[in-house]
What we know:
By secondary structure, the chain is mainly alpha-helical. It has a domain at about 65-115. About 80% of the residues lie in helices and about 0% in strands. It contains ten helices and no strands. Helix 6 (about 105-115) packs antiparallel against helix 7. It starts with a helix and ends with a helix. Residues about 1-25 have low confidence and may be disordered.
Amino acid sequence: MKAAFHFHKFVVAAFLVWAGCDAAAWATPAEETAQLDKLYTELRAADAEEASRIEDEIWRLWSHSGSPSMDLLLERGRKALEQGDYEAALDHLTALTDHAPDFAEGWNTRAIVWFQMGRFGQSVSDIRRTLALNPRHFGALGGFGAILEALERPEQALEVYRAALAIHPHLQGIQDAVKRLEAKIAGQDI
């Protein structure tokens, strides 16, 4: 019996290697936090090309809930969002946030849907939840800055954009927004 168990473990491990499964998908929360800490440190020191690779890795880690079914809901929600089917996206992402309320990326992705629908109040609510779960979520900060900018609150938007850049200094769109808002605010002071 013991030999069969060890053989089973070997077969499973071999299948995972053959199938190309990512070891990070099986990481414990503490291991994932350590991976993210390392990536955030590397991100601050990286050049633009390396920063793009690191950012992709961060998003990949953020997108793993620890549950294949929850990851599938996120994937379906994102696909519906890409296709402009906001109602379907909301259905998938609301199911995700209901069943995995501690999974920040579910809240963040639903915040994007609300934003695309022009429903800023719901978007801000989901952004707050995202940032409570993942305070270093530069994507959520960027989204919050965009909402503040759309609401004609340039000083607050600038503050939030700067917070996003403190985490990820290579976000070109946010760098451009900071320059634009700094010029706008300086022009108001004259």
